[in-house]
């Protein structure tokens, strides 16, 4: 039996794009420089935590021509 792992970025895209929305982003950093990005759905308030690599992946995807959902940069 094989299982498919869905990345946090896929969860954000699936959620926001199913609604045709752009999520709000908050960056939270500790003093030692560790950061996490919280993407919040403006419709229902669902929140998704992303690390730096995941956030950069979501930004790149959101910047592609023709996108009607994702995160604003």
Topology:
Elements: H1 8-19, E1 22-29, E2 35-40, E3 47-50, H2 52-62, E4 70-71
Parallel strand pairs: 1-4
Antiparallel strand pairs: 1-2, 2-3
Keywords:
single chain, 73 residues, alpha+beta, four-stranded mixed β-sheet, 2 helices, globular
Q: If you had to describe this structure to a student in words, what would you say it looks like?
A:
This protein has 73 residues and is of the alpha+beta class. It is built from 2 helices and 4 strands, in the order H-E-E-E-H-E. It has helices at 8-19, 52-62, and strands at 22-29, 35-40, 47-50, 70-71. A hairpin with a 6-residue loop joins strand 2 (35-40) and strand 3. Helix 1 runs parallel beside helix 2 (52-62). The termini are far apart.
Overall 3D shape: globular
Strand content: 25-35%
Q: What would you call the structural class? A: alpha+beta
N-C termini distance: 40 Å
What is the string of helix and strand elements? HEEEHE
- The total strand number stands at 4
The proportion of residues forming helix, as a percent range, comes to 25-40%
Q: Spatial order of the strands in the main sheet?
A: 3-2-1-4
Name the poorly predicted regions.
none
Largest sheet: 4 strands, mixed
What is the radius of gyration computed over CA atoms, rounded to a whole number of angstroms? 13 Å
Number of helices: 2
What is the arithmetic mean of pLDDT?
91
